[in-house]
Amino acid sequence: MEVHAVLVNTGGFDTEELKRIENHAFKLGVKSFKCIDDIDNFYKTVVKYLIFGNILKNNTYPLSVSAERIAQAMAIANYAKSIGATAVAHGSTGAGNDQVRFDMVFNIVVPNVEIITPIRDMKLSREAEIEFLKEHGVEMNFEKAKYSINKGIWGTSVGGKETLKSREYLPEEAFPTPVTKQGSEEVSLTFEKGELVGINDKKMSSVEAILKLNELASGYGIGRDIHVGDTIIGIKGRVGFEAAASVVIIKAHHLLEKHTLTKWQLYWKDQLSSWYGNWLHEGQFLDPTMRNIEKFLEDTQTFVTGKVFVTLHPYRFQLNGIESTHDLMSAKFGSYGEMNNAWTGEDVKGFSKIFGNPVAIYHQVNDTLK
User: How far is CA 139 from each of CA 21, 27, 89, 167, rounded to the nearest angstrom?
Assistant: First the structure.
């Protein structure tokens, strides 16, 4: 077979690294090499909705890599279609989520194309893969290969021997970004209709803002954690990650929403966002229900506009507050626990009696409070 190598860039590579990868591919004997820059598309079709939904898998993981895999699978499937490929090969093992995500998208988008998966089918360990490459004269930094690093605009996952068990944390050197900053730093984030469009009063595209915030926050070691969750294939999985920008953005966006959305908007967003994030994590991006929920999420962002003020510290950050013309915590309606301007004490007495009436009737009829 002719081998046509394709790399989908979702934010994890610089120009120099892409050139090295291209040279490496041709050295291995590929017929062609294609780099697809999918960063903007990945933001518009996936990341934007992860922000709108404040999505953190198991209240921890911002779906950094699982979300990327969907964009990558879609781009590869469409590229395979465009060159008339008869097969698509990927290097997933048989023990993780990625095999399902890739296979499912390929089966839907290019259903007549064969899927070749040697690592999975031959049950090769990481050590066996390295040994195979060495035997065939492939030169690369195999020490670095002790950890599986997946870097993108929405975060970086880190897998290694420590994450294969339940007890150990990843060592400092396993994280790609070293902690170099001390002290603290004030940052303001500007949102327009739920999208991050400015850092420290400087307007920029959302992609530029994510990259800028990551540059500011990652040096503090912010956004590091280990996620434990249920995999698509039914076993528990554990993976480390660093995602400074995504964690800060999600928390800041959520704070702005708490000021600008109503109680029931927040409630239903939580329900649908949780389901959306889980279904995306499991590779079901092409389910039409996902498009329905995206429309709902987009509609909720109409008045999510304003600034969020954040302080960055080593290994942590704090949300200081917000400014927004759509802030529902307006002093003209009263100050919680202090003074009200929109009702009287008699209004509250009547409301309290009526509001508790269904429960009062239940207890009186059933004589439950003796």
Answer: 12, 10, 22, 34
- Provide the mean pLDDT of the chain: 94
CA distances 131 to 25, 28, 29, 134, 142, Å, are 19, 16, 19, 5, 10
> Is residue 290 a contact partner of residue 284, using CB atoms and an 8 Å limit?
yes
Portions of the chain given CATH number 3.90.1260.10: 4-323
Q: Which structure tokens are listed for 334? A: 């009263």
Indicate whether this model's pTM tops 0.85: yes
Class of 4-323 in CATH: alpha beta
Place of tokens 């004030």: 186
What integer pLDDT is reported at residue 330 of this predicted model? 76
Helix, strand or coil for residue 13? coil
Rounded to an integer, what distance in angstroms lies between the CA atom of residue 113 and that of residue 120? Answer: 18
The proportion of the chain whose per-residue pLDDT surpasses 90, expressed as a percent, equals 87
Nearest to 41 by CA among 7, 10, 67: 10
Pure H helices in the chain: 15-28, 39-42, 48-52, 64-83, 98-109, 118-121, 126-135, 206-217, 244-260, 263-281, 288-300, 345-355, 357-366
Please tell me the distance from the alpha carbon of residue 32 to that of residue 3, in angstroms, as a whole number: 7
Q: How far apart are the first and last CA of the chain?
A: 82
Distance of CA 24 to the CA centre of its chain: 30
Instruction: Quick: pLDDT tens for 116-140.
Output: 999 999 999 888 998 999 999 998 8
